[in-house]
Design goal:
Elements (H helix, E strand, L loop, with lengths): L9 E2 L7 E7 L6 E4 L7 E6 L10 H4 L5 E5 L2 E2 L5 H10 L4 E7 L6 E2 L2
Antiparallel strand pairs: 1-8, 2-7, 3-4, 4-5, 5-6, 5-7
Amino acid sequence: MARRFRESNCRDEFERPIKLQNVTITQLPLGIGFDTRSGPHYLSIHHFNPGRDGKMKFAQRLLEVGDQLVVVGDTEVQNLPFASVVKLLKETPIPMRLQFLRTQTAIAVCAA
């Protein structure tokens, strides 16, 4: 079971509060391109892909480039290898709950 991140106990490396964003995915594809440049176990949003109709998915209205994926469904994915997170994203049924951390720094640290 994933630890529930709370804004009150999440801070970046400079002790600034971090905003959490919860998104429920109701259709695929996600329309999100992930990046691992912050490290092999930290997935952040690199870009948004338009749908087949040329429109951006709703996630772009809620999320920002740089937001870090930390929970898929009930599974904490921070510190999991990229391939494991991709597999989890493919296997988690719709509707799928995703949780992202929004910070100005590359790696967020959360107290338990």
